[in-house]
Fold this sequence. Notes:
Elements: E1 4-7, H1 13-24, E2 28-33, H2 36-45, E3 54-59, H3 65-79, E4 84-87, H4 104-114, H5 116-130, E5 136-140, H6 155-175, E6 181-185, H7 202-213, E7 224-226, E8 229-230
Parallel strand pairs: 1-2, 1-4, 2-3, 4-5, 5-6, 6-7
Antiparallel strand pairs: 7-8
Bound molecules: NADP nicotinamide-adenine-dinucleotide phosphate.
Amino acid sequence: MSTVSLVTGGNRGIGRETVRLLARRGHTALLTSRSQEAAEAAAADLDPEAAPGEIVPLRLDVTDAASVERAASVVADRYGRLDVLVNSAAITYDTWQRPSGADLDVVREAAETNLYGPWRTIRTFAPLLRASAHPRIVNVSSESGSLASMGAGTPAYSVTKAGLNALTVIIAAEFRRDGMLVNAVCPGWVATDMGGAGGRPVEEGAASVVWAATLPDDGPTGGFFRDGRPLPW
Ligand code: NAP
């Protein structure tokens, strides 16, 4: 049976490219999006004919518990397990804010997607990941969330990504004995809707994610990486 992978925020940007690269490696890649229509359109656009794997569109809004539970029950019924979970969905690269004047409603909304979203998704899919022989979780983070280099910019984004990094460490610790590899990955500055023009090609950013999604069993866990190299927390 092929590896079953699920990517949140799979309808555009790095998530979509990650789906494409995983399907190219033969995975059954679940392209999830907060809208079923957007998932289907993106999957059709990715030309599954060109990939040895399968691309399966599925609705999953990381802020909506019922939607995450419905997606998990579809995966349970169809596959009985999940091998790879890639938490890519994120919002609010808030270049317009500074910490002391930040709108806390904006921060709260960002946390709902960038931190509680992955946490909710991991919680819900944990039994299915435990049913896999080689489970992997990749939290798509950012160097903006690195305490070692943080400045005053993008406060909501930076703090929620720092939270995601902490989540990575504690989930990795919990699942270490189950052989689950859980890592945070920075894709670098990538030319997507979020990254804007000038960043590196989306395939390079997604390759950084795919590296962590396809680690061998003796690969690292509880780390923070870009392009397969460790980043300071
Ligand atoms: P993007 O182009 O803005 O795409 C964001 C994706 O997240 C979209 O598919 C969006 O779906 C989805 N999303 C937003 N809220 C969601 C929700 N509640 N439930 C499910 N999906 C939701 O961003 P990107 O540049 O590809 O970023 C992907 C990841 O890389 C993010 O975690 C980001 O923080 C990280 N990252 C990006 C860069 C960069 O330079 N681009 C740098 C460092 C880290 P809709 O179409 O429905 O909005």
